[in-house]
């Protein structure tokens, strides 16, 4: 059990509780069949809780022994992923959601050690189309074209 991960997961759970408390006081929606201002903050809060809880579980299950080489490679991948997210955010208004998002997901999957081109291309395209359909038809929110 690593002390850093334990402290981080507990701190994230506390932050998640505070964020949920603040989200609770956002006014509910006024239009029928549309997501209101409190919808996405609740989605973020739930995802934050899940990830914090998974970090806590991982910390309790894994052993102390971690190789330094794997740690360095992981840190480099995290840095490249943050750079990829930054580039994606910059290019999104210029290129549109449907064009740039498959490349973002392909890069993300490649960084997550997926090397099969067929899976990367199929899943990055299908995830992009699913998100676009979800936002356009279910949430009635139009993404940048």
Structure characterization notes:
- This protein has 145 residues and is mainly α.
- The protein has 2 domains: 1-65; 67-145, no CATH class.
- Helix content is 76%, strand content 0%.
- It has helices spanning 3-24, 39-61, 68-95, 97-111, 117-138.
- Helix 1 (3-24) runs antiparallel to helix 2, helix 3 runs antiparallel to helix 4 (97-111) and helix 4 packs across helix 5 (117-138).
- The protein starts with a helix and ends in a 7-residue tail after the last helix.
In DSSP terms, counting alpha (H) and pi (I) runs of 4 or more, how many helices? 5
Report the span from N to C terminus: 46 Å
Report the C-alpha radius of gyration, rounded. 19 Å
- Helix content class: over 70%
- Average of per-residue pLDDT values: 81
Instruction: Tell me the domain tally.
Output: 2
Quaternary organization: single chain
Q: What's the main sheet like?
A: none
Low-confidence stretches: none
Fraction of residues in β-strands: under 5%
Strand count = 0
Shape: flat
The arrangement of helices and strands along the chain is: HHHHH
**Which class best fits the helix and strand makeup?**
mainly alpha
């Amino acid at each position: 059990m690593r002390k850093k991960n334990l402290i981080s997961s507990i701190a994230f759970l506390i932050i998640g509780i505070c964020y949920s408390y603040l989200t609770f006081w956002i006014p509910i929606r006024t239009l029928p069949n549309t997501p209101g201002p409190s919808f996405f903050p609740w989605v973020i809060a739930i995802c934050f809780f899940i990830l914090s809880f998974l970090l806590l579980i991982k910390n309790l299950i894994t052993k102390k022994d971690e190789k330094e080489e794997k740690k360095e490679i992981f840190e480099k991948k995290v840095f490249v992923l943050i750079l990829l997210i930054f580039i994606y955010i910059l290019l999104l208004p210029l290129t549109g959601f449907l064009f740039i998002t498959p490349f973002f997901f392909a890069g993300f999957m490649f960084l997550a050690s997926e090397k099969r081109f067929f899976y990367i291309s199929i899943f990055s395209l299908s995830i992009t189309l699913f998100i676009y359909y979800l936002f356009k038809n279910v949430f009635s929110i139009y993404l940048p074209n």
